[in-house]
Write a structure and sequence with these properties.
Elements (H helix, E strand, L loop, with lengths): L5 H11 L9 H7 L5 H16 L4 E2 L5 E2 L6 E8 L5 E5 L7 E3 L12 E8 L9 E10 L4 E8 L3 E6 L8 E4 L10 E9 L8 E10 L5 H9 L8 H9 L13 E2 L6 E4 L8 E7 L5 E8 L1 H4 L5 H9 L3 E2 L4 E2 L4 H7 L7 E11 L5 E12 L2 E4 H10 L2 H6 L4 H21 L8 E6 L5 E7 L3 H24 L5 E3 L5 H10 L5 E4 L7 H11 L5 H10 L5 E3 L23 H15 L5 H41 L6 E10 L2 E6 L4 E5 L8 E4 L4 E4 L5 E3 L3 E10 L4 E9 L12 E4 L11 E2 L2 E2 L35
Parallel strand pairs: 5-7, 13-20, 14-21, 25-35
Antiparallel strand pairs: 1-2, 3-4, 3-6, 4-5, 6-7, 8-9, 8-11, 9-10, 11-12, 15-16, 16-19, 17-18, 19-20, 22-23, 24-26, 27-28, 27-33, 28-29, 30-31, 31-32, 33-34, 36-37
Length: about 775
């Protein structure tokens, strides 16, 4: 947007956002803005043109201007589908998607920014969503695609790997650049779809043949636009970074090198960014020290590595490789808390009473020298297996691990008592050989050691977040908003099918009630189905420049402080700690700088996290499908994990998921019951519902589509009807607005000497209350 037009643009937008605004003509708007002379009128009209081009405003057929939402238009991003239809995801938060039929896409592609005219509104009674027509493409979102080249006689086509891109890409003979049948290629689009003509492009890179080892993962990397090599200036900065700490650089850091501090990670971890220690105080309290790699000491704001790390947002962990956020020379070297060497850290020390309350805390710069590099396996052997050999090896520090176990149990009890939700889904790891071929899929278990570290990191993240919330300075938080009331209400209705009733509504339910449901169903046949549907009713956690709390953790304050090697928001948190606490810069200019920067950092980091999760999930699904390729005809036990109008997804014990298509349910005509997440036979009354145990045979596997097809062999238990048993009542105390006068997660601020004495920032919305709702359950055998 042109700089000289920006003031006009902002003023026009503010003017049109008024409640009493009605669409006006150019002349009427000009009069409102007193553009009397020819020059100012010319600039005013330019601003209107720019705003219209950007989709900020709409000019109706009667030449009157208004905001899109005032004119029944929606501006948003297209989310395509292989079958040709699409959705427009609005820019406005919490606005519902708009369904676009295949005939109404008007050549828009997946990823485009568009304007859509809404033709019909959503209906709660019928469940139908808004529907519309794309009327203008504001910005093309796809410049390159990754796909498989298919040769024809005098030309070729590329079938996109991303199935949201409908239609092949036409490749003229002169533009194939050596590509042959089966090559995975990167195509640059030269023309976009028009009328009945497909998009056209040229091959700019040949990745290799689709069957070559490793090409499948490389294709996913290119498809999601994941970075690979670091820029030359970032690598130069990494090379210039020292490999060891110079004593003269320690400065005013607190020297903790005489303390017993350990790292606890997986055996194959190379970037160790957190270390812990626990001592017992004379007053019966515990002192927990969480020491995090001080990446911000080496990666300064605006440096080449910082610029690249900000763009990447996060490290990406694919099946057979890691794409790091910062160069390996730092992440595995000077920034990694390797055993028995000096390392710079930022520390959060917390004094915790026997009830799990943090009664004091301190955040400071430090230098540490870890005593041991522990693995989850060895800590489990100490605490659970009581392995004599391991106990003898680590004899001097075994008492500390026992203290850690006690403290972790205290922290977990406090967290669960206040209402944190603990989903315990199975996770799997795909094991591959040197050529990238999968040879096994194993379940990962959250061991005692992993849960122990998890509790300590949660405590540090909450403590740091609360500290800066009360300082009332710009900061970046990890938030999890309340569930959508409509989705949560549907979930509460759904569980009545299993005989559970929660007193309350989707608008006012406390997370404690949801955790009570999970505890109530634990060990029952419906545990998986209820957990899955509950999770789907939740919103995604994200980064935000406002302290809005974390619903799933039932925490009023939360941030990410503990992984600056692999998450950019954590690095920003460290930078803010250095700015506010260590350098003491809390002046207005500093705060204005961060107030302006942090919303964009939060949004970009959330987007990059989502990209990373999508890529990781895609590579997992691809390798799982490849693992099943030689198992066609074999029979497995599984559980129905999802039900749709086109069939049912069945998850095997190793988490591999496949589809039973509705056309393969040949014993009856089955209709999809959305309310009950079930397929119901019209004649037999048979019910297939998520959570049902089922026996399936592998019918087909397609690695390129990342799909496994099953057919039903048998069911463990036939379900002829939906549950009509008397419901178990779970009485949930409603959310309460909490007193904001000096009371936070840790009680009165006066209990904590390190807290700021500034007046707290007035919050727009209070979310949680101390304590948990009373839950009354009536145990009744199911008929």
């Amino acid at each position: 947007m042109k700089e000289e037009n920006q003031p006009y643009i902002n003023e026009i937008l503010d003017f049109m956002k008024r409640d009493n605004y009605k669409p006006l003509t150019v002349q009427e708007l000009a009069k409102e803005f007193n553009t009397e002379d020819a020059e100012s009128f010319k600039e005013f009209v330019k601003a209107l043109v720019i705003m219209e081009e950007k989709g900020l405003i709409i000019r109706a057929r009667n030449d009157r201007y208004g905001l899109p939402e005032q004119m029944n238009f929606v501006k948003g991003k297209v989310s395509g589908h292989a079958k040709g239809f699409a959705f427009v995801v609005p820019e406005e938060k919490d606005a519902g998607d708009v369904f676009i039929p295949p005939t109404e896409t008007n050549n828009a592609m997946h990823g485009d920014i568009v304007l859509a005219r809404v033709s019909s509104e959503s209906s709660e009674s019928s469940g139908a969503r808004r529907e519309g027509t794309i009327v203008k493409i504001l910005e093309r979102g796809t410049q390159q695609i990754v796909g498989t080249y298919t040769q024809s006689k005098n030309f070729g086509f590329v079938i996109a790997d991303d199935k949201k891109i409908a239609g092949d890409i036409f490749i003229p003979k002169a533009a194939r650049n050596g590509a042959v049948e089966g090559h995975k290629v990167v195509v640059e689009l030269t023309t976009y779809p028009e009328g009945r003509m497909n998009a056209e492009g040229k091959v700019v890179q040949i990745l290799g043949h689709k069957n070559d080892p490793g090409i499948d993962i490389i294709s996913v990397i290119h498809k999601h636009g994941l970075p690979q090599e670091f820029p030359a200036d970032a690598l130069t900065q990494a090379i210039d970074t020292p490999e060891t700490i110079d004593e003269k650089d320690i400065g005013n850091r607190r020297d903790l090198r005489d303390q017993v501090i350990v790292t606890i990670d997986g055996a194959d971890a190379k970037d160790l960014d957190d270390a812990v220690t626990v001592t017992e105080l004379e007053n019966g309290n515990y002192k927990l020290g969480v020491h995090i790699a001080d990446v911000s000491h080496y990666v300064k704001e605006g440096s080449p590595i910082d610029v690249e790390a900000a763009e990447r947002g996060t490290s990406v962990y694919l099946v057979d490789r890691v794409i790091p956020m910062i160069p390996h020379r730092l992440s595995n070297g000077i920034c990694s808390l390797n055993p028995k060497v000096n390392r710079f850290t930022l520390s959060c020390e917390m004094e915790i009473d026997p009830q799990g309350e943090v009664v004091k805390h301190e955040i400071f710069e430090s230098v540490i020298k870890t005593t041991e590099r522990m693995t989850y396996s060895d800590v489990n052997k100490i605490l659970v297996d009581k392995d004599e050999e391991v106990l003898e090896r680590y004899e001097p520090i075994v008492p500390m691990f026992e203290r850690m176990e006690k403290l972790a149990a205290i922290l977990r009890k406090k967290r669960m008592d206040r209402g944190a939700i603990d989903f315990d889904f199975k996770e799997a790891k795909v094991l591959v050989d040197d050529d990238g071929h999968p040879h096994d899929v194993i379940l990962r278990e959250r061991s005692v050691a992993e849960k122990l570290i998890e509790e300590f990191m949660l405590a540090a993240n909450e403590t740091v977040a609360e500290h800066f919330h009360w300082m009332n300075v710009p900061f970046i938080y990890r938030i999890h908003e309340d569930p959508d009331a409509e989705k949560l209400t549907r979930f509460l209705e759904f569980i009545t099918n299993f005989g559970y009733t929660v007193k309350g509504t989707g608008n006012d339910i406390h997370p404690r009630a949801l955790q009570d449901i999970l505890e109530e169903v634990k060990g029952t046949p419906e545990e998986m189905v209820i957990s899955t549907v509950m999770l789907r009713s939740m919103k995604q956690a994200k980064y935000e420049a406002e302290s809005l709390g974390h619903f799933g953790l039932s925490a009023e304050f939360y941030t990410h402080f503990t992984s600056p090697i692999r998450r950019y928001p954590d690095l920003i948190v460290h930078r803010l700690i250095r700015t506010y606490l260590i350098e003491g810069k809390t002046d207005q200019q500093t705060q204005e700088k961060w107030r302006e920067l942090l919303p964009d950092v939060a949004e970009h980091s959330s987007n990059m996290e989502r990209r990373s999760v999508d890529a990781e999930r895609e590579t997992d699904d691809m390798k799982k499908a490849e693992f099943m390729a030689d198992k066609v005809g074999e029979v497995f036990n599984g559980i129905i994990s999802s039900v749709t109008n086109f069939g049912m997804f069945v998850e095997l014990e190793n988490t591999i998921e496949g589809l039973v298509h509705v056309s393969d349910l040949t014993d009856d005509y089955y209709r999809y019951d959305e309310r009950h997440y079930a397929m119901i036979g019209e004649k037999t009354g048979n019910v297939f519902r998520i959570g049902d145990e089922i026996e399936v045979k592998v019918a087909d596997v397609n690695k390129d589509e990342r799909s496994v097809d099953f057919i039903i062999v048998g069911m463990k238990e036939s379900r002829k009807r939906l549950s009509k048993d008397r419901p178990k009542v779970i009485k949930a105390k409603q959310k309460s607005r909490k007193d904001d006068k000096g009371k936070g997660r840790e009680g009165s601020r006066s209990k904590n000497e390190e807290w700021s004495t500034q007046k707290p920032k007035k919050k727009k919305k209070k979310r949680f209350f101390e304590g948990a709702p009373n839950v009354k359950r009536k145990k009744k055998k199911r008929k």
